[in-house]
Amino acid sequence: MAGLHKSDIKNPVLNWIDTRMPVFTMMEKEYGSFPTPKNFNYFWNFGALAMVTLAIMIVTGIFLAMNYTPNTEMAFDSVQRIMRDVNYGWLIRYVHQNGASMFFIVVYVHIFRGLYYGSYKAPRELLWIIGVALLLAMMATAFMGYVLPWGQMSYWGATVITNLFSAIPLVGTDIVQWLWGGFSVSNPTLNRFFSLHYLMPFVIVGLVFLHVVALHITGSNNPLGIDVKSPQDTLPFHPYYTVKDSVGLCVFLAIFAAIVFFAPNMLGDPNNFIPANPLQTPADIVPEWYFLPFYAILRSVPNKLGGVAMMFGSIAVLFVLPWLDTSRVRSARFRPIYRPLVFVLVAAVVVLGMVGAHRPEGIWVVLGRVATTYYFLHFLVILPALGILEKPLPLPESISNPVLPRRGGGGGPLPGGVPAAPMEKP
Ligand code: HEM
């Protein structure tokens, strides 16, 4: 019949569907035979791990929502009931709670991979930008989710963070009251946060879809950061990377399970075992670990508006990163100055995380300011300058070249795929 897709799928039922809507052909093309660089290392597992974690979060979240009550009088108790009376409620909640941390660990490693191997550079700028939008969406979701159990830290964290908007001149107070739906964090706030916390994961699913569409149009980057030149440089995604991703997934799930079963409250705050009390401010209001670096940037600036601007600025620089890094070479392996500096950036972010967990006193103030300064210098000054100042190492001619035996003996893999000497011409 004219206009119908001619499907190669053997199973008659699937063939019937595929002829009318070629979803199986599409899946085969995008996840079966999809040509994928042959030199991926385990850093390339983390996108798939993020997808699996997102699915786990949605499934556990749906079951939690069946038993949760978004009302300030009942929220805390409904969570206690989930933990004690609902069948496997403790398991569902601990998986969801620790899943948020696992999700951020995975995505932070995923971002580090992108920074190290220059995956944000042309032609993958849009893919990267969608990634940064995903990070923002994840942060908003996690923030609102943390408010739902209505413990002390839920309430006071929400109060501190929503109050930041009051720093905006003229309209700040109006915006904060509009966010609250009242004159403080209260029942309307809890209700809308619950509604949005349920909605946002599906926005994230939509963004992930666009992220993967953008990825499959440009194709993946790889540890050498050079373009795929010939079919010899690639492998079909299945079975090579489905298997490799499965290996990583097993390790990931083992670590995840170990935390859930042996240390489920390791990352939580004891204050959240106390029901929210608007009349009693906790001695320290500390966000979840994954927000600590941003919290530290916020507090490193003595001026409230300045702090808020810098905090949002720390994410905003990521949006324009593809244009701040002017080097032609993608992978840090071939960038002798950039390579150590990525680790300095990581160290600065870790220091910021530690600063965020401590009271802003003494050495922590100094460390916070030094690390904040480095963070912005790295993106706004060092990266643009390196494009001019740095002399990259010679790049391999192709992905296959460093891993296939070379003509004239001396074959075999070169350590890490880095060319020891300028590459031989075949
Ligand atoms: C919900 C969160 C996210 C999910 C589910 C996700 C998923 C994926 C998947 C499945 C891939 C392909 C596999 C891989 O290369 O690891 C990928 C690639 C990529 N992602 Fe993400 N991602 C997320 C967040 C982010 C964020 C926050 C960024 C950056 C700020 C980002 C930037 C990239 C880049 C640049 C690539 C291409 C990497 C390459 O080809 O070398 N992603 N992502």
From TrEMBL:
Cofactor binding remark: Binds 2 heme groups non-covalently.
Location within or outside the cell: Membrane
The keyword Chaperone is assigned to this record: no
UniProt record similarity statement: Belongs to the cytochrome b family.
Region annotation (Disordered) ranges: 404-426
InterPro entries referenced in this protein's UniProt entry, alphabetically: Cyt_b/b6_C, Cyt_b/b6_C_sf, Cyt_b/b6_N, Cytb/b6-like_sf, Cytochrome_b, Cytochrome_b_C_euk/bac, Cytochrome_b_N_euk/bac, Di-haem_cyt_TM
Residues the record lists as binding heme b b562: 96, 197
Domain Cytochrome b/b6 C-terminal region profile intervals: 227-397
Binding site for a ubiquinone: 216
GO annotation, biological process: respiratory electron transport chain
Organism for this UniProt entry: Acidisphaera rubrifaciens HS-AP3
GO cellular component terms given for this protein: respiratory chain complex III
Keywords: Electron transport, Heme, Iron, Membrane, Metal-binding, Respiratory chain, Transmembrane, Transmembrane helix, Transport
Bias type Low complexity, positions: 417-426
Topology within the bilayer: Multi-pass membrane protein
Function: Component of the ubiquinol-cytochrome c reductase complex (complex III or cytochrome b-c1 complex), which is a respiratory chain that generates an electrochemical potential coupled to ATP synthesis.
Residue span(s) of domain Cytochrome b/b6 N-terminal region profile: 13-224
Protein name: Cytochrome b
Keyword Transcription regulation: no
An MF annotation (GO) of this entry: oxidoreductase activity
Pfam families tied to this protein: Cytochrom_B_C (PF00032), Cytochrome_B (PF00033)
Residues holding heme b b566: 110, 211
Transmembrane segments: 42-69, 90-111, 126-148, 155-178, 198-217, 247-267, 305-324, 336-357, 363-389
Lineage: Bacteria, Pseudomonadati, Pseudomonadota, Alphaproteobacteria, Acetobacterales
Coiled-coil residue windows: none
